[in-house]
Amino acid sequence: MESFEGINEFVAVAESHGFSAAAKLLGCSTSHVSRQVSRLEERVGVALLARSTRMVSLTDAGQVYYQQCKELVIGLQQANERLSSQQIELSGTLRVSAAGAFAENYVAPALMTFAKQYPDLSVEMDFNTRMVNFIEDGVDFAIRYGRLSDSGLVARKLVDRPMAAAASQRYLDQFGEPTHPNHLAQHSCIIANNDHWQFEKEGKSMSAIRVSGRWRSNNSNAILQACEEGLGIAYLPRSSFGNKLASGTLKPVLEPFWGKGSSSWIVYQNRRFLPVRARMAIDFLVKHFSDWQE
Fold this sequence. Notes:
It holds the Pfam family HTH_1. Belongs to the LysR transcriptional regulatory family. By secondary structure, the chain is an alpha/beta fold. The protein has 3 domains: about 1-85, Winged helix-like DNA-binding domain superfamily/Winged helix DNA-binding domain (Arc Repressor Mutant, subunit A), CATH 1.10.10.10; about 90-160 and about 270-290, D-Maltodextrin-Binding Protein, domain 2, CATH 3.40.190.10; about 165-260, D-Maltodextrin-Binding Protein, domain 2, CATH 3.40.190. The protein has helices at about 5-15, 20-25, 30-45, 60-85, 100-115, 170-175, 220-230, 275-290, and strands at about 50, 55-60, 90-100, 120-125, 140-145, 155-160, 165, 190, 195, 200, 205, 210, 215, 235, 250, 260-270. It has a 5-stranded mixed β-sheet, with helices on one face. A 5-stranded mixed β-sheet has the order 13-8-14-7-15. β1 and β2 (about 55-60) form a beta hairpin. α1 crosses α2 (about 20-25) and α1 (about 5-15) packs across α4. The termini are far apart.
């Protein structure tokens, strides 16, 4: 069994590019990780890591060894999960970063349902739009919307979010109703994170329309309130409007041109180093939203 010692620590260092970061992932001291990796290198008789004052990288031999070792770690984790999946009692704190109306109105209630199943589990949801450092900030996973950058993070789709445009009757009475996206140049638009709006015609994407207006906010509730107050036309994922379209509080506009929008995602660092509570919460959310409709 001695030959297996240090492999988990080595894989963690390889994937987090540092001994301190690996120690945080594994919940142990940096000295322990360094010691275990050094002993592993002594046993295999080759340097697996190239160490510098700024970062740690794999040697050529380390890269080959890592490709084999990561499969061992994955296999061991999967075996342990299958063995204990029927007898897990979750505890500790699940930390989630989220942003937007979808997370507030749909993801948060779903996580409340999940938490009620495990009386010893605590949940912390931090609503913000900033990029999080999963290791430094202690975040298990994040809920994000839109196109994701290729950051090396793992992303699992929750739902597709088709778009809708709307305005208050007061605004339309005063400024008229646009009948084509090109008419938005003569209108005040309420801008969220993007001032280039993407519409479709008969299922095909049109050229993005650049819009401007008197109100801009990264908070959907503030956008909806400004829209109700007659400050302009809003273009958001349909679910962000809640029941305001069905109730007549806001009137749909440009409906033949609404775009398919983007998706909401669960984003996290690495499945192998997620605590069980995070993996189970992610699986719960994916299943919960598997048949969700706008």
